[in-house]
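Review form for a predicted model. The reviewer records the input and the model, then writes brief findings.
Reviewer: anonymous (R2)
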Amino acid sequence: MTNNCHVQIVARVGAFALSMMAASVLRADPSNKGEVMQAQTQSGATNPSAEVVLGQPVVAAVSEPREQRWGFCQFPALARLPDGAILLVWADADDASEAHGHPAQALVSRDDGRTWQPYTGTPRPLRPHYSVSEVLDGEFLTVPAHPYLNIKKEGVRLPAPAAEAKVYGIVRSYRLADMPPAVRNYIHQLPAMRWTPAAGQWKDEIVTYDQRNQLATLREGSEVIT
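Model under review:
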């Protein structure tokens, strides 16, 4: 990103669907000038069943002129939707915890990435790093970021921090087990949406997980805990 230029969100998709083992990585085939990518295991063996053919780059979105703010027109993500369309999402706000969980810019392609239109469907993409994943039995799941708990508005009294680090400023970590119930419950229950072939539509659900040994973090100067 330099002065006097636009930031472009470039979509480059073709044969989008890919299934391979978790140990595999994608590598470009030099004989095809990078247009074909094959999956290789960490030992170097090629998996011929996992191949991605990339189409020509398509400019899907362009930032405002001279955009240089960090977080704006960045962090693009692609996801296949249940109906076969491709969802493209990117950030359009400061890369800050306070911006997480709010609506994101999104486009959809119904011709495998050749053209793009504004997306207004369900589920609603949220910032940042939004994704939709195909899980078992043809189901799709999305667990987006949601607005973080504002400890000042909720009157939360914090325990002593367990650790402190410098990551673009001072960040303090707290043992979730030491937190008040309001914080533990808020972080423990993650809003999600699931699509099933039987229902043929997205439905709300709550994802919970094991909180043992989990840490919550608070950036110095912020009022939201993550």
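Findings: The first strand starts at residue 8 and ends at 11.
Further findings: Residues 188 and 208 are 6 Å apart (CA to CA).
Recommendation: see findings above.
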